[in-house]
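Same chain as my last thread, 384 residues:
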Amino acid sequence: MPLIPLRPLLAATQRYGFAQGAFNVNSVIQAEAVIAAHEMFRSAAILQGADLANAFMGGNADFLKGTLEDKQRGARLIGEAVKKLSQDSPIPVVLHLDHGKDFASVKAAIDGGFTSVMIDGSHLPFAENVELTREVVQYAHERGITVEGELGVLSGVEDDVFSDQSTYTNPLKAVEFCKKTGVDCLAISYGTKHGAVKGENVQLRKEIVIAVTENLKHEGIFGVLVSHGSSLVPRYIVEKINQLGGTIKGANGIPMEELKSVIKAGIGKINIDTDLRLAVTRNIREYLAGNNSAAENPALKAIAELMNQKPEQFDPRGYLVPIMDSFITGQTTDPQVLDIFKRIKQGVQEVVGTLIVEFGSVGSSAKVEAVSLEEMAQRYQRNS
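reply #2:
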């Protein structure tokens, strides 16, 4: 099935009252695992490539300093791979840009084959955020591409997204923002947090979700709400990492019951990144600890050394540099590296499969209209 824009999937979440997990990937093998898990549960799938993940996939190991050229190469690589995976799949698949920081980065993703983009102007004053987001909406909608905006600031760290404090989203400003920009969905700040350290016993501000949702309905504005910083940080995974030499401290996620309560209140898309990193890291540590022959493989030995140097590290991009090209493309002739790839896929599928069930998107593929970008562009034009 060809890739679809995010808009028809958002419409399905709103109509049928479920949420769709949106899973961040940094390589083709992770993308394969995400799609395979969704196929198993006949769920539509949202794969996300963050702005700087595109720089990494473009070949820059120091992705925090990624250039536009890096992002363009990475967007083309993952775009072509996911397009092919989607064509061979029976489920609708969306490829979404997460945390696009400027117009050029968004354009790089669209040119690379992404069917949905986020422009993150949350760090800007309201009027400037509106102007930047409106510019992206106009460009994207002309091409049938879905647009996600953001209003309010989440605390925590994810790639270059960083803030010490949260600024909750004002429901009235959210409605004004959606009306002025024409975004299809809106990421809001209501108590979630980027990263693995979210605090204990997090309680989400569900009333913010309800207020935004109800006000949008009252104004007749289509807009599905998005939850960033929503990883659950499973305790059993963190504990196993630490048993195997990791030193992840203070790790706490969003309680599942809290996420389920906001799905009913109007959250239709839930972003997951940290949980995937944790599961992959645990699986690789298990493999290295259980295979003495791994120490004889130069690439795996180098990976182990990097993990030992930074035991608090759980982002695979930080320690898989010795096999970076193979990791990104999924291509290798080394049987032990293939074993590593197998463990990576298993970790991704463990997290993704669990959340497909918990978020209620099992069987959602049959509920999502398979709309082409061309048809979506015509619909945007008719409604403008």
